[in-house]
Design a protein that fits this description.
single chain, about 325 residues, alpha/beta, D-Maltodextrin-Binding Protein, domain 2, 2 domains, 10-stranded mixed β-sheet, 12 helices, TRAP transporter solute receptor, TAXI family, TRAP_TAXI
């Protein structure tokens, strides 16, 4: 009789949510409404999150995803670790440093981070007007410059470049569209952003731009300090300012999730995204192309089990070092 009373009592507690169940790597609750951690408007993360939310809202049953404006890469890994968002975009170097607790995350491992799928390569740009006379990053000394939104990989990269080469601009951290507007009205003389970026395309409709990158000598020195960055290309004819294209340091952008998100939720998101890439291509062609199965190795932290399940169903084997901790 006493056992029956205790069992009934516990059942009531569970029913009213007084007693909860802990999440693990292989389980978790599924919520039909959630935000995608993006970045500021005008940047690639915001465009990518918009494309993904369109797919989720149209193709994932009983789910509604909204785009959440954030500080981008660094901000998003923090929000994921704290459980404030379920999925969000970041970059390979930020994800790696956060997961390992290195550099700016020294001693603060973000161990809940998991990869959902690769996004697209991002190439850093220092954007100025041609009339400014800024041709080299060293010309930014003492200039008014937005290094990127606080918590973004743009800010981290720009600050590391300035520190490496002892350049001291008068920096601010404006959201992408605000930085573009500030450049137009003369409040600043340049800003950092990563390709692809709609803000740069819009600027070119009314102004002639200089897109400044590191030269070969600077490339060598920076690589010695930060070997985790990739040397990537912006294709020809992407921008009027660089008709032949240009090379600079960059990274791969990724969709990340918290390990606490259920396998079912992540599986359904990945399935919808990969089986409706045409919808993503309409909004962001670079993201649709970057999601190729051949690019699944372009991440620096383990995959979420729900993503692994989908990719293995497609006959793709995830490298052992990218499997979730505890996987065989």
């Amino acid at each position: 009789m006493r056992l029956l009373v205790v069992s009934l009592f516990l059942s009531v507690l569970v029913a009213f949510g007084i007693v909860g169940c802990s999440n693990s790597e292989t389980s978790g609750s599924t919520s039909s409404n959630f935000s995608i951690g993006a970045g500021t408007t005008g940047g690639g993360f915001h465009t990518g999150a918009t494309a993904l939310s369109n797919v989720i809202n149209d193709k994932v049953s009983e789910s509604q995803a909204s785009v959440q404006v954030t500080g981008a890469s660094v901000d998003n890994v923090g929000l994921l670790q704290e459980g404030e968002i379920k999925i969000g975009f970041s970059s390979t170097e930020t994800a790696y440093e956060a997961y390992k607790g290195e550099h700016q995350f020294d001693g603060k491992s973000h161990d809940k981070l998991r990869t959902v799928f690769p996004g697209w390569p991002g190439v850093y740009m220092f954007v100025t007007f041609q009339e400014s006379g800024i041709e080299n990053i060293e010309d930014l000394q003492g200039k008014s410059y937005s290094s990127g939104p606080s918590g973004s990989s743009n800010q981290v990269f720009a600050d590391r470049v300035f520190e490496t080469f002892n350049i001291e601009p008068n920096t601010s951290n404006l959201p992408t569209d605000d930085a573009a507007n500030a450049l137009k009205d003369g409040t600043i003389e340049g800003f950092s952003i990563a390709w692809p970026a709609s803000a740069v395309t819009r600027l070119e409709t009314s102004h002639k731009l200089n897109i400044v990158t590191l030269n070969e000598e600077q490339k060598k020195k920076f690589s010695e300090v930060y070997p985790q960055y990739l040397w990537l290309s912006i294709p020809p004819d992407t921008y009027e300012s660089i008709p032949k294209g240009v090379e600079n340091f960059g990274l791969y952008n990724l969709l990340l999730a918290s390990k606490d998100v259920s396998n079912e939720t992540i599986y359904e998101i990945v399935k919808a995204a990969y089986e409706n890439k045409d919808m993503i291509e309409e909004v962001m062609p670079q993201m649709a192309k970057g999601m190729s199965m051949e690019n699944l190795g372009s991440t620096t932290i383990p995959y979420h089990p729900g993503a692994v399940e989908y990719f293995e169903e497609q006959g793709v084997e995830i490298p052992n070092e990218l499997l979730p901790p505890g996987s065989e």
